[in-house]
Amino acid sequence: MAAPKLHLSGIIEESIVDGPGIRFVIFTQGCPHFCPGCQNPETQPFSGGYYCNVEKIFINFQKNPLLSGITFSGGEPFIQACALVALAKMVNKIGKTVVTYTGYTFERLLEMSVHNQAIKNLLNYTDLLIDGPFLLSYKNSDLLFRGSSNQRLLDRKCRSKIEQKLYS
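The structure corresponding to this sequence follows.
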């Protein structure tokens, strides 16, 4: 079976602003949110960008032993959840972390995952989720790993508590 391909806008091989530690950042191409003031407007169109095999990305990721993990940004990563799951699995297997940015709220992703198992799988492989759309009216450059104060940093424990409240 051929390795899945990702539709990318670009890759940054070392970042200290896209999650904890030194991150390898994947910018997916295509986003349905079109947030005014988006930090990455070039990633919004579903056209453009380029395609890259996840195995090739993983090989490049492994070249730097200083990396804490990988970050999926966008665009909207959950549009390509299936291919990102394949990459996240490889990253987790070698003990590195996965951070995923999304313009959806965690609650909305749970709703969407009922009809798309890949979304649930990507959530399961994500150590830290930064959720919610960028809202220009809530812009705050002092926030850790976020652009607006409505966005949340949700680790596995936080997400589990939210799920318990939703389904109890």
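DSSP finds five helices and seven strands in the chain.
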